[in-house]
Amino acid sequence: FEHSAANVAAAIAQNGIHYPVAQDNEYGTWNAYNNQYWPAEYLIDAQGRIRLTDFGEGEYAAKERAIRSLLVEDGATGLGGPTDVHALKPSEAEVTPESYLGTERGERFVSGPLAPGVHDFGPLPSSPLALSELRFAGRLDVGAWGTAPANGDGAVQLRFRARRVYLVMGSPERARPVRVLLDGRPISSAVAGVNVHGGAAAVRLQDVYNLVDLPSVQTHTLTVEFPPGVTVYDFTFG
After folding, report:
1. Which of 83, 163, 218, 233 could serve as 168's disulfide partner, Cβ 3.0–4.6 Å?
2. Minimal CA–CA distance to 121: which of 99, 146, 142?
3. Nearest one of 212, 234, 227, 137 to 174, comparing CA atoms
4. Contact yes or no for 167/209 (Cβ under 8 A)
5. Residue among 13, 10, 11, 35 nearest 24 (CA)
6. What CA–CA distance (Å, rounded) separates 60 from 45?
7. What is d(CA 185, CA 43) in angstroms, rounded to the nearest whole number?
8. Element spanning 60, H or E
9. What proportions of the chain, in percent to the nearest 5, are helix, strand and coil?
10. What beta strand segments (E) does the chain contain?
């Protein structure tokens, strides 16, 4: 979904970003730096020299000080005080790894490696999943990076350990409801993510939807039921 220039432009507008954003679909810049990590940050001074590299989340105040130092070194003045950002922070506890829902990087499916094309996964069984395992239900069209119903509703279920659960989804043409169940019951408003209302998320443009927001890192079974017209791509966790 991030390969679409329209999606990137929408995210830039949504987040009020005013600096240039480069789109590296062919990994030209990524490979030129021999980069192996995401997120990866390279601070470059006015002479084009790499002055700091950092991989992963966190240490935001230290990174800001480094940026300010390079700006001052180049003659910048009137920078104002340090920023005061209130943002979600990654959980310090170990959580379920990012989980892709297509053939390219789909892993930990109880049915085995995903194959491209239309497949009938049948109804969801009652047997429990092991931690971080996933399974599909329904007749689905499995693509390289995403999966969509081929006939009737589809579902994806996983056993996760995290505080927050996000799912990248898209619904072209119009908004469609995606039902969210936690441990087999419609998710309650007390632990529903900001994009879930009345047990369902209204999915429109390709975006990251926050489905679960727990008070702490916990282990649960999440079921997402999605109708024809909705494509699911990728679970992430915080």
Report:
1. 233
2. 142
3. 227
4. yes
5. 35
6. 18
7. 47
8. helix 60-73
9. 10, 40, 50
10. 40-44, 50-55, 99-100, 117-120, 134-142, 147-170, 176-182, 185-186, 196-197, 200-203, 207-226, 231-237
Place of tokens 């590296």: 24
Reading the block at residue 162, the tokens are 């995290």
Q: How far apart are CA 5 and CA 227, in angstroms?
A: 26
Rounded Cα gap, residues 150 and 140, in angstroms:
5
User: What is the pLDDT at residue 199?
Assistant: 97
- Residue 142: predicted pLDDT: 98
Q: Kindly list the distances between the CA atom of residue 181 and the CA atoms of 149, 175, 224, 234, in Å, as whole numbers in the listed order.
A: 18, 19, 6, 17
Question: Can you give the pLDDT at residue 227?
Answer: 97
Distance CA 138, CA 142 (A): 11
| pTM higher than 0.85 | no
The two structure tokens encoding residue 203: 């999915």
How far apart are the C-alpha atoms of 206 and 200, rounded to whole Å? 16
* Three-state secondary-structure class, residue 128: coil
Q: What is the pLDDT along the chain (238 residues), one digit of tens a residue?
A: 778 898 899 889 988 999 999 999 999 999 999 998 888 999 999 999 999 999 887 788 889 999 999 999 999 998 988 887 766 666 667 899 999 999 999 999 999 999 999 999 999 999 999 999 999 999 999 999 999 999 999 999 999 999 999 999 999 889 999 999 999 999 999 999 999 999 999 999 888 999 999 999 999 999 999 999 999 999 999 8
